[in-house]
Amino acid sequence: MKTIGIVTSGGDAPGMNAAIRAVVRVANYNGLQVLGFQRGWEGIIMNNFIPLTPRSVSGIIELGGTILHTSRCMECQTSDGIKKSSKNLAANNVDGLVVIGGDGSLKGALALSKVSEARIVGIPATIDNDVFGTDETIGFDTAVNTAREEIDKIRDTAVSHERIFIVEVMGRQRGFLASMVGLTVGAEIILVPEIKYDEEALFGIIMENAARGKRSAIIVAAEGIGDTRKLSADIQKNTGLEARLSIIGYAQRGGSPTARSRFLASVFGNKAVQLLLDGRGNRVVGIQNSKVTDISLEESCGSTKSLDLSILELAKVLAT
Amino acid sequence: MKTIGIVTSGGDAPGMNAAIRAVVRVANYNGLQVLGFQRGWEGIIMNNFIPLTPRSVSGIIELGGTILHTSRCMECQTSDGIKKSSKNLAANNVDGLVVIGGDGSLKGALALSKVSEARIVGIPATIDNDVFGTDETIGFDTAVNTAREEIDKIRDTAVSHERIFIVEVMGRQRGFLASMVGLTVGAEIILVPEIKYDEEALFGIIMENAARGKRSAIIVAAEGIGDTRKLSADIQKNTGLEARLSIIGYAQRGGSPTARSRFLASVFGNKAVQLLLDGRGNRVVGIQNSKVTDISLEESCGSTKSLDLSILELAKVLAT
Amino acid sequence: MKTIGIVTSGGDAPGMNAAIRAVVRVANYNGLQVLGFQRGWEGIIMNNFIPLTPRSVSGIIELGGTILHTSRCMECQTSDGIKKSSKNLAANNVDGLVVIGGDGSLKGALALSKVSEARIVGIPATIDNDVFGTDETIGFDTAVNTAREEIDKIRDTAVSHERIFIVEVMGRQRGFLASMVGLTVGAEIILVPEIKYDEEALFGIIMENAARGKRSAIIVAAEGIGDTRKLSADIQKNTGLEARLSIIGYAQRGGSPTARSRFLASVFGNKAVQLLLDGRGNRVVGIQNSKVTDISLEESCGSTKSLDLSILELAKVLAT
Amino acid sequence: MKTIGIVTSGGDAPGMNAAIRAVVRVANYNGLQVLGFQRGWEGIIMNNFIPLTPRSVSGIIELGGTILHTSRCMECQTSDGIKKSSKNLAANNVDGLVVIGGDGSLKGALALSKVSEARIVGIPATIDNDVFGTDETIGFDTAVNTAREEIDKIRDTAVSHERIFIVEVMGRQRGFLASMVGLTVGAEIILVPEIKYDEEALFGIIMENAARGKRSAIIVAAEGIGDTRKLSADIQKNTGLEARLSIIGYAQRGGSPTARSRFLASVFGNKAVQLLLDGRGNRVVGIQNSKVTDISLEESCGSTKSLDLSILELAKVLAT
Fold first, then answer.
1. Which of A138, B22, C14, D252 has CB atoms 3.0–4.6 Å from D143's, for a disulfide?
2. What is the Cα–Cα distance from C98 to C300, expressed in whole angstroms?
3. CB B50 within 8 A of CB B38
4. Neighbours of chain B (3+ CB pairs under 8 A)
């Protein structure tokens, strides 16, 4: 192992830069050279890279986004794209590749690892937290806190106007973000794609809350539950209470990472390089029960992480 | 002048609580009693109030929203509503009333001042900054900074993905918020209702920017310009560049007020009570060229504040 | 189990209010009444309490400090104080008591549990994270992030002036806070009480860094290492480089809790009430390897939590 | 006017980068070339500079510190240093120089303007706000808000522990920062160098407050008032109340600038270049009564800005 590559791919997540920094510095400390492929998989296919030294990653631990840029790339999924990637890695004598990204990026890493001679290790970084094999992904804690801060502000208006607010958060088809945000902002109701909700029952709960003296309410809804605009209108129509919708948008994906996102980025980056130094590939690193671990890319890509429903149960009790 | 009332009305704005605190404490310092009417004009019509002492307003300087709650009230606009309000003020021996709110609230204050014996003074508090007679309203600076912080985060993703982001901010039919936010986040383009824009020209600017090497762009758009969802789709279709929309929602209306919003709340609250102590009513306080001032409610309600177009010109040059 | 008490004691920590809210609402959900003792142990000794209902804890999840107030109390340690406390709990028919606080508060809880008939359960809340039996205490994550945000700002000046900054963080006699802050701000050097440092070696590292082109440096020092003022002066004298000291003070102990501190407060509060409902006392709740757990007060008070030295090792490599 | 230089000097202030960006882009828009001298005056004396283009200043509007770095330079004050500077400006065909900094930097600018052929314009940037000729300096609003946010957190602990906190803020020998911070955090007492305070009277006020039921207090003290450590000890000794000291340190000088600091940086940068384009030198730009203005360097350096005492009077009433 002499030269390794890094690529950030898919949606960006706060802490990707901290992970790049960790990979570069641990690699350098162990005598490895590092190439940074730019703009996601596209950079590998187009052979577009820059050398990364410890000085190249100065001051980036606190920055959102990714200095390597990223993209969603269609060609990369094709066998032709994968072949080109494999060829370019070989041409640059890249012995190991660290892929930083979410679910889709790890699937790409798996496909490439079947073709390429280079050892490939994934680092899970996505605000959605939907990667199997790790309790938490890089960026999740930051996104939770960004949404929490915004909802703390929205609560001011909800209380002052005695209104219901439906707040849509990200999370794609999963409810990890919504459930943690909902619990920690004290949401009256949390809606996630994993649990179908009944509109009639929902109206009932809202009116019951109002009857018990709760004049305002925050409903945190995952984007994956469907049309929140319609939901908001339906609530207003059926409960007779004023309802407003607020969509917490792309700010959730950016911003300076929290300590926890930086911590995960640091230990994941370190672990990824250690695996490569040990000659191991086809792995994705993670944290499970507070231990830094790794599983195979196949297992991660082939399994579905389950949502902790006890959080939703507790949130319900705490919102009384 | 022995007893004064306070009411917060219309949309809430960060710093309303700081203004309540200032009014209560300056009034108390000058030997006045204070009644806080609850839930906006409705509180006056329904004769719903609480006494406010210096201790009632402890610790509220830093809170968003309004401890008196607020509402938009239809009945209040009617002559019947105004008569009821006037009667209740008299019944409670309220000699002076401080109305904290935006444009609409001041119109209500003007209507009431024509009927009621009580002296009425308005304090402009709205994130829209669209009140004539003051260079800046309470809450404006906070909303600008809230939007700025979110857009600073969105910029991370815009740059990392090399995308165009249209970010819609509040401001009702005016561009005060959008222009100050746009200037201070370094937006490539700012769209305000006061200046009609040409879609073709807009696409041209975006493509020119891209040609000059600016791979990402932030377009700050006031909510008053119309359908930003359509605009976003049009840009993507016509420029061939990826475009995303993010609507900065109700968070702009809440949150702990900035120092400047608290400062204005403090000096406005003080000025309002001083006017009442001087036996003056039918006024709205403000800050003009750094001096705390007051004008008549008629003048404020009857005039339109002009937008400083030089900010937009400067923003254009600074985005090159 | 019909009535339980709550008390917050010792230094305050962000998330104490979220824990109070959780205890009150879970207790209420299970048919228990709740008494809130005020100003720490003093409230039990003086029989000073208020009833707490789900509405009493509305809107407090986001507030720093503790609505029950707290104090450090000398009398409480005496056998006389403990007897008075025990008597008052009995007089109020308090069957269970939840003690929210740090190390010292748990020692008080242990002493009381030996005398009182009431079941006593501790909830670890301290920014120092120095409680045995839990991987993380309520407030720790918030304090880490508060210090991180400040140091991110100090880094601006450090870089612009090409200076060395020694930043002292809290943590009493332990290095939990300093090591996590140091890792996540990318500190060049981290000093903790658990590892004696050699001044000469320290000067050497600083000059070596400077020689390698690192013109500024952040040294994160735990308050427990001794006189940072002297250290700062010594560094300047011995390295010839400009050094400045900044002490991150009491802000670390306050502020709105992060999502993680609120999450721990919620699950700890729930667990504490569940233990009481099961008739169990003399326990302290915690989180270990991501599971909510409990151990005896004796074990917690009698053991010393070890610092994860691998964090310091990793931080060193990452600062190259 | 073909080529202009920029230098940032003295203590850094948030918004310096936004000012650099504004100068560079306005200059470029008007066909001027820009040289950025590095590390303050030292860069001019050592002839150390880089060319700055619109792309060099991309993304810096939101960064604290200064990309040009800064220093306090002894040689620069000497006539020899000034001669070297003048010679280097001439050698590089620098027709105009923009000096961004505080009081001391403007004095340097004045000295240089007497010797150099280049037109010299100052932009006031300092968190101390102690520059004559402008109501507000770049960085002041950011520092006020940074201190405010920290004190809002400290207030949590002050209230929970029912303690007195003395919080020392920056401001050198002036009370601009302390008075605005004090007013906007609702400080019970504000101490500034411009008004001598009597210790006995101070103890009296504190005990009176306590007697009226205010169990905690925040005293905001400017660093210029003297030894706050001693003051804190004296208060505790003489009032019998617990007192703690917290020094808000260098974080006040860094961090992402607020909207207002960015706004001032933008209009000041624009004005400075316009003056140079008009062939005018020996000026310092500013904002007075909301108008962007300029006065001579002599007048600015030779006059003392007065502190608005009405803020302190109002703060006293509002803290009742």
1. D252
2. 16
3. yes
4. A, D
